[in-house]
Amino acid sequence: MKTLAAILALTCLAGCDSQAEARLATPVEVDGDMIPAALRGLQGNAGRGETVFTEREQGHCVLCHAVEGLDAEFQGNVGPDLSTVGKRLSREQLRLRIADAQYLWPGTLMPSYYRTEGLNQVATDYQGQPALSAQQIEDLVSYLALLDGDAT
Ligand code: HEC
């Protein structure tokens, strides 16, 4: 029995980032600071991602982030400037940051957009629903991956 427990513990060390997986809207494999595979296998669209990024009814990321050359009335600076984020972070890293920023940075102001568990102050109508859909997150990943500072 001891061996079994040891094996279980080892398997967990090798691939048990289940903390993030369990609280996300669909089963997601987290590897280090990345989500390696596209959410629900969906393909992102950068054009739509820009809309999700700016629109108040969607991601409204401009509330806290600025992107040089982006056509938006207001751009905040609570979060880092994302004008060159596509150079610094891979698509896989971007995906985890959008899906569950609080997994990486507990206590951050950035919302976890693909989480359904452990959220505070969720209106009853929205319980069990992530703030953004898998498609919207893949669209954002495609948009941000292209930001290399030449976007004017
Ligand atoms: C309420 C403010 C807020 C909102 C809204 C917000 N973020 Fe953030 N974001 C932050 C903060 C703060 C950080 C820095 C993380 C930290 O250290 O706390 C961050 C970090 C990031 C990073 C990592 C940047 C880097 O340089 O490492 C990405 C990517 C990102 N946000 C994307 C988004 C996207 C996409 C949205 C919209 C869906 C969004 N954020 C909405 C506050 C916000």
Sequence-ordered SSE layout with sheet pairings:
Blueprint: H1 2-15, H2 18-23, H3 46-54, H4 85-88, H5 91-99, H6 101-104, H7 134-145
The structure holds heme C.
Characterization of this structure:
This protein is mainly α. It has a single domain (2-145), classed as Cytochrome Bc1 Complex, Chain D, domain 2. It has helices spanning 2-15, 18-23, 46-54, 85-88, 91-99, 101-104, 134-145. Helix 5 crosses helix 7. The longest helix has 14 residues, at 2-15. The termini are far apart. 31% of the residues are buried. Mean pLDDT is 86; it is low at 8-16. Bound molecules: heme C (HEC). Heme C (HEC) binds next to helix 4, helix 5 and helix 7. Heme C (HEC) binds at residues 59, 61, 63-65, 78-80, 85, 88, 94, 97-98, 105, 108-111, 113, 140, 144.
Structure keywords:
single chain; 152 residues; mainly alpha
Q: How would you sum up this structure in a few lines?
A:
This protein is mainly alpha-helical. It has helices at 2-15, 18-23, 46-54, 85-88, 91-99, 101-104, 134-145. Residues 8-16 have low confidence and may be disordered.
